[in-house]
Specification:
By secondary structure, the chain is α/β, with parallel strands linked by helices. Helix content is 43%, strand content 23%. Strands 3-2-1-4-5-7-6 form a seven-stranded mixed sheet, sandwiched between helices.
Length: 232
């Protein structure tokens, strides 16, 4: 039997999974749930996608690995799944999408079925937009990690729906100031914010809002980096 192998990003997500019944939203190729089933970390998996072609590919992969009895497949938009499917899961993974899209998925009314379930979220862009939405929608951020793969930084957020604001800094979240990867990532974000502020000095039109947001981001990044300095 073929063995599924994962890259650094998906391996980090797999390591966080604590439940036995997984929903992989936007599963694409289906490698993550197939790996988790093969290794015995989960007992069943629901794979979803908004497009039929990747869902069919994921089904073919599961079939080739002899995993069809432990998997089910839904052509669905985000959390638009039967209530019993959502209620039965332990862990929901939404990975490989933009932060805005993940936020939109989590804004579904069906989020009420996710109370106390483990959510593993991996935004490919705009993690600050995702964190802001998590706070607004009543999700608590339990922890965050950051890694570097294929020339890009990747943030992974672990959250749970509590129906209460999480009140987390949207720019640095729950990243660990003592983690070298997080420090490198935030340093890069700080340089980007400072560069953008310089560029806006000569920009035409009203840039007041953009400047305000960039200054807030810059100050958060600086505060994050200073925490590690204080612990030296």
């Amino acid at each position: 039997m073929k063995t599924v192998t994962l890259g650094k990003r998906l391996s980090a997500i797999a390591a966080l999974v604590s439940g036995e019944r997984l929903i992989d939203v936007g599963s694409d190729h289906g490698k993550l749930p197939c790996f988790l089933l093969q290794t015995g970390k989960i007992q069943s998996a629901v794979l979803t996608d908004i497009n039929p072609l990747p869902l069919e590919k994921a089904k073919n992969k599961a079939a080739s690995l002899g995993l069809l009895q432990k998997t089910s497949f839904y052509l669905a938009n985000g959390l638009d799944l039967p209530e019993n499917v959502l209620s039965a899961c332990d862990t929901v993974v939404i990975a490989g999408m933009g932060g805005e899209l993940i936020a939109e998925i989590l804004s579904s009314e069906n989020r009420r079925f996710l109370a106390d379930k483990q959510l593993i979220l991996q935004p490919m862009s705009k993690p600050e937009d995702l964190r802001a939405a998590l706070d607004r929608l009543g999700y608590d951020i339990k922890g965050e990690t950051v890694l570097f793969e294929n020339g890009k930084y990747c943030v992974i957020v672990e959250a749970v729906f509590t129906d209460k604001p999480c009140q987390t800094d949207i720019y640095t979240g729950k990243l660990n100031p003592g983690d070298p990867a997080a420090r490198d990532y935030i340093t890069k974000r700080l340089h980007s914010a400072e560069k953008s502020l310089l560029n806006l000095k000569n920009a035409a039109g009203d840039v007041t809002s953009a400047v305000k947001q960039l200054k807030a981001a810059r100050d958060s990044y600086k505060a994050f980096l200073e925490v590690k300095d204080e612990n030296k």
